[in-house]
Every structure is written in structure tokens, then in C-alpha cells.
Structures
1.
Amino acid sequence: DTGVSQDPRHKITKRGQNVTFRCDPISEHNRLYWYRQTLGQGPEFLTYFQNEAQLEKSRLLSDRFSAERPKGSFSTLEIQRTEQGDSAMYLCASSLTLAGWGNEQFFGPGTRLTVL
Amino acid sequence: KNEVEQSPQNLTAQEGEFITINCSYSVGISALHWLQQHPGGGIVSLFMLSSGKKKHGRLIATINIQEKHSSLHITASHPRDSAVYICAVGHSGGGADGLTFGKGTHLIIQP
């Protein structure tokens, strides 16, 4: 399979619990992005990595959120002390950087989080 | 104020009709993307463009950089085209190209 994969596809948790999501990008892609999408809205940028370096974080990414890409391949997004407002679809995308050019991003199927 | 505005928000049309979805943006961009999202969440990239026009099958995307406007057209629409179509922009000026998205256009093609 050569696409972007995410695990799990669905997660139901109780408020206050910690959750971790995983994203496996397309293997030769050096950039990896995390987005969040709430019902009826377009996705919103959370953070991105170039190789293992986290280069930008959105103001949406509170202190309860942390993302890693330790070896420049897969990435994890952890949410601590989940709140009901964290319920959303968490999307991962990857791209191959081309200098001076906007990069086509390939999206995974998403992880749908429900916080009860 | 949203940096990316799409219209219409909802569109219902009959099979075979010519469809146009519009996108306006207010920032400098490196590229504009048109994406398709089906129920269940999966997003597919349709086009990435920074100038002119691109065509793929029955889909055509155009962009006018001076007017900061793009359109997505679907010719001979079919019920399987029913989906949410999202316009997104990558910002110019270096730094991240994490995309900024419009809210999407929910398209329903009736047989």
C-alpha cells in the first residue's frame, strides 16, 4: 500500500483520558502535516514536520497536544486530558518538498475522535 | 474573516448539468488546491495550481492570481460526483505550507 495510513480510524474516550494517534506517510515524503476537522467545517492546520523537525505549530495546538516524528517517518499526535471540544476528525497528510513550489499533499483517511 | 471563501455552500443539480464552484482568497499564495471529500472523511487531491487552467477528465480548475479567485468546473455531472469540494491555499512567503481551507461546497447530483 503506497498511501497515507492512520491508526486508529475511530477512537472513543472519556473526558480526561489521554489518546495517541499514529500516521504513516508515503514512504519517500519528507513533509508530514496534521489537521483537525470539526463537523461541517473545513480542516484546520495544526502542525507540520519536515523530516523529524517540527517546524510550525498552529495556535490551535494547545499545551495538551504534542506531536512527534522521531525518525522522520511515522508521526504520533497525543492529546492529554481530553475535552469534549477535542472531538473531531484528525487528518494527516504528507508531501514531497520541492523548493519554491507549493506541494501537493496526500491525505490519510483520518482518525475520528469522540470524547464523551 | 476567513482567508478562503467558497460559494455556494450547498449545491443541488440534476445529472448532466455543468457545475461551477467558486473560491476567493485574501492572502498571497504559493498554490491553490482543490480537494474532494466523500462521506466518511477521505480527502482526495484533485488539482494543485498556481496559474492558468488544468483539466482532468470532466474536471476543470482555473485560477486568476490578480483577482485572487479560482473556479472548479464539472462537466456532464454524475451522481458519483456528489461530495464536498474544498478549496485550500498554501501561503507564500516561506515557512510552512500547511494549507488554509475553505469550509467546502456540499454538492449533490440527482439522477
2.
Amino acid sequence: DAKTTQPNSMESNEEEPVHLPCNHSTISGTDYIHWYRQLPSQGPEYVIHGLTSNVNNRMASLAIAEDRKSSTLILHRATLRDAAVYYCILSNEAAAGNKLTFGGGTRVLVKP
Amino acid sequence: NAGVTQTPKFQVLKTGQSMTLQCAQDMNHEYMSWYRQDPGMGLRLIHYSVGAGITDQGEVPNGYNVSRSTTEDFPLRLLSAAPSQTSVYFCASSRTRGSNYGYTFGSGTRLTVV
């Protein structure tokens, strides 16, 4: 499975943007980049996903490098509710079970 | 829509007991899967199903059985509980197997085997 590398933790101030990096240097051409977050004592929550182009939705933006070897999740204005572990995952339907392989993720702390 | 509903939320079992964790979704999703999450770890895939009547093994299937008789339900059975199965279990569903769809997760079942 193609792996991702994320920083263990990041801190941000409330109402400031947060940029979460993810390296995936062994990504294949058919791997989608997915981001999920997990709030304390809850199940993972889908945030955003993309293949080649940058993507925006109501929760966040996903910026994908031109060579696709890295990506950045952008939370435009962090709130206290955004404190969670954020997982960057490569998903490929050719993989057994189309499984999502979760790594350690980045723990985001938002300070008021 | 309720999304993905898991029951029970908490369960304590004695070693050797069996039980079924329930998972139901009301989004008409074809793809369903079970993950376990051990403390401080990421999620690992146990079993998955690409549609009613079709199931397959994930990374850590030993000690667990699944069935998919309807699109909506995907129960996970522990045959003979062991302390190593103490974990939080998450059920997830997706519109289809393709990578271009996000997954919806349930809120989890916290299982302790003593």
C-alpha cells in the first residue's frame, strides 16, 4: 500500500487558517487522496478527497501538488470544534476491499 | 437520515462468550466495512462487503464472522471473545466500492473482553 507521512501534531489559534501537510511520494496514478478527521470518542468523519485538481467544500480545501507527491488540507478558519486527529489516506479501488489504510494522523490543537 | 447506526455503544464480555455487533445504514450504500481501532492506533479493516450476499476478509479477520443478507445491515460476529479483541469497532459505508466516494462511519462500539 502507498503510505502517507504526516506531522504528529500541530497547533493553531482560533479563527486562523490551518495548513495540514501530507507527503505521499509513492502515490500511484489511480490513488485518490482522502482526508478524514476523528473527534475525541467519535468515529472518523469524511472531510474531502481529490485525485489531481484542487478541491473545495464547505469544510475545507485540498491543495494537491502538481506531481501529486504531496497535498495540503486547509481549514480556512479554525474553530474549537476542529480540534481532532486528521488522517491523510490514499484510496485505490484496486486494493483489497478498497480499504482505507489509516496511519497515525496529525493531532490538531486549537487554542482560543 | 440516520446515516450509519451501530449498537450497542458499549459492551463487556467474558472470555469465550460470543456476541454480534450490529450495523445498519439507511443511505442505500452498496459498500460496507468493519474496522477496529486499538488505543492510540489507526483503524484496521476486519471484513468488508461490496453488496448483499458478498463478503470478504480484510487485514485482521481472525475471530470474526460477517454476513450481508440485506443492503442495509452488516453484522459482525465475535465467535469466542478473547482479551485481544478489546477495542473500539467502527462500521463504515460508501455508495460503492470506487475510490471516488467518501465513507460514512458509525459512532463505534467500545468492547471490553475480560
3.
Amino acid sequence: DTAVSQTPKYLVTQMGNDKSIKCEQNLGHDTMYWYKQDSKKFLKIMFSYNNKELIINETVPNRFSPKSPDKAHLNLHINSLELGDSAVYFCASSHYFRDRDQRYTFGSGTRLTVV
Amino acid sequence: GQNIDQPTEMTATEGAIVQINCTYQTSGFNGLFWYQQHAGEAPTFLSYNVLDGLEEKGRFSSFLSRSKGYSYLLLKELQMKDSASYLCAVKWVRNQGGKLIFGQGTELSVKP
């Protein structure tokens, strides 16, 4: 009965590879996010989807491509991985931002290590 | 800009009280959240303030002053398990899609 589940939890891969991270939420939220947490623990938003529609697209290399097949799922595909992509990637979900209670629920994170 | 400032590290003693401050740009402010993050885990929601004043939840309280662009998280009767990073996050009206901007986090160490 996990609220926001991400897979995999750990991902070690070589430079140049392509990898995907999957996220699913069962909270009935209509907005989902991808955040990146670097080694200094700064959480920075990458993308957000509301009901399958992209609403936030920060300055992220176009090697990163999110996909939302439905409002309960948000996946992240990364092409041509680079050393600097090593970080912890968190998926989160919430009610729509115009709702007062926009608290995020985070997934457990995916620790990506590029070697 | 949308800077959020909070101290990088704090240390406190078990059983004591600690206050973690957060300052932010006031223009267009539309809500402030506090999250707790234990090492290697996901951030978890602690509190939400959008109006001035104090919100109390058990051992944790959060205060907001919109005019001063200031919030604090107050932790009472500290326990060892409270050792974690505490993240202040702000929503501004003009932010596309209502995204939250997070501060760098305050690493709290609780000593016996």
C-alpha cells in the first residue's frame, strides 16, 4: 500500500547508456513531479505533469524526457548518461497547485550512479 | 530571485528545544512548507503555513511572518530520532505550475 513508489531504488550504469526510472502513485493526486537532489542535498525541480499534461519544464538537458501515460504514472527516461547525472532522483505527487493543500508526497528516491 | 536561506547545520541536546529559521523573498509569496528528511530517505511533510502565526502539531510547531519573509520550525523535547535534515520550501504565485522551491536544508544533529 505504498503511496508513491519508484523503481529502481539503486541504479549503477556506465556513461553513454540509456536508462529509465518509473514512478506510480495511488493517492488519487493529479499532479506529479520529478526532483533531482545533488550531493549537497539541494532538491531542484525538473518536471511536473498535471493530468498527463506537462506544466513545468525546467532548464534540463533534452537527454531527460519525462512521460506520463496517465495521472498515476510518471516515468523519466535519460539518454546518453553523463557522470554529472549522478544524483538521487525523487518522484513526488500532490493535488493540483491551485488547491490549498498542495503538500507533496515523495517516493523513496532512485540513487543513480554513472561510472 | 527566489532565494531561500536557512542555516546549513545545527546541533542540539536530547530533551532540549531547537528553532530552525528560514527566510525568503516576500513578493508573490503563496505558502511555505517544512519537510523532514532522514539520511537516505525521502522527505516527509511536517507543516504548511500560508497565514501569519503559529501552527502547532505535537512536538513540532511552525511559525510564519509574511511581512518579514520569515518562518521557523520549533522542535521541542528533542529525541535522537529527530536528527535529520529539515527543508524549508516556498511557493510563489508567479511560479509556473505552483512548483515548490526548496532551501538547501538544515542538518540537525541531536546529541545525548
4.
Amino acid sequence: EPEVTQTPSHQVTQMGQEVILRCVPISNHLYFYWYRQILGQKVEFLVSFYNNEISEKSEIFDDQFSVERPDGSNFTLKIRSTKLEDSAMYFCASSRRGTGNIQYFGAGTRLSVL
Amino acid sequence: AQKITQTQPGMFVQEKEAVTLDCTYDTSDPSYGLFWYKQPSSGEMIFLIYQGSYDQQNATEGRYSLNFQKARKSANLVISASQLGDSAMYFCAMREESYKAAGNKLTFGGGTRVLVKP
């Protein structure tokens, strides 16, 4: 069964460093998302992406964040200058048109900012 | 105001018994979707079941069923015949749909932790 793949599973970085989280969405999906989950808290929407542009973004998705689909398969989230409070699980999801437009999630990347 | 409310932070259920997880939502959008996801201790988010606001019948997927009461704005998940592997965090989520055909964000509730006892 097709699945969303995220790499790395765990990323440790120093405050102020740039990180890139990578995702390979399900191949026939057209809509891509990033969510984050701070430990013990609810899952929060960051950004959605369609047709090579951002469809919607949350207040969390400020100028230090960016997304890109550099080729036909990858979808990346870049955090330009990480802060301690960026430590969280980051989930990529994808969906296609159809009943429910169900979003399928990857296994997540746990980002630890030291 | 909270869009998705899960009032049960945690619950125990005996193996082989059924359990109901509560979810209430708040929206003025006439078109929306309701979802349940399972998050085991390993951390991934697994889609379980979907209910559209215009669906006349409650959704079912194997041992999962969604008790959709539109007038009460509730979308409770029922897990029948609980198994040890059902121990996990369960999240209710909503997508409001009217202004876009697809690609709208999910808004999640705070989750309910379920522990199945042998």
C-alpha cells in the first residue's frame, strides 16, 4: 500500500541552524501538508501546498519556514534558523481529490533543537 | 472557541469490550468532513475513518464506527472488540470544505489516550 515517507526520523540540531525535513508524498496525490505536534500537545496545521504554491498557512508558519517541491516526488519543509520552541514532531501528509480527500500522514520527523 | 473538543483525556478498556471516544465540533460551514486518527506510541498518525457532513449513514470501517449526530455536532468513535494493539492516542479532526474543493487543513482535537487491559 502506498505511503508517505519522511526522512530523517529524528533530527538533532543546534539553535540557529537551518534544517530541512523531507517528505515523499503518495505518488498520485496532489495536495501536500505539514503539521507539527509539540510533545504532549495537539497536532497543529502549518501549511498546505497545491500546484506548486502555498494554498494556506497558519500563524505558526512565519518567515523562518518555507516549503518546496524541488522535483516530482519530494516535498520539503525548511526551518531557516531553528529556535528551542521548534522542537516537535513534524508530520507530512498528502491527499488527492476524491471521497473525503483523506490526508495520509507520514511517520513524522522528530526535531530536537538544543 | 475550540473547533474540536475531546473531553476524555484518557480511558481504560477491557480487552474484547467496546469503547466510545467522544468528539464534539463547532463549525458554521455546512460542508465539512470529520476524521479519526490513531497515534500509537511509535508516533505515526494512522487514518481510521471518515464521515462527511452530508452522509446519511454512519461510517464504518471494520471494528471502527463513527456515531455521527449532526444536530448535536458530535462524531464519536466506537471501537468494538478492543484488542491490545488498540492502545494508543486517538485524535478527532475536522476539515471545513465550503470555500475550496479540496486541500483544506485539518483541525485536531486534543486527543484521548486509550489503554486496553488484558
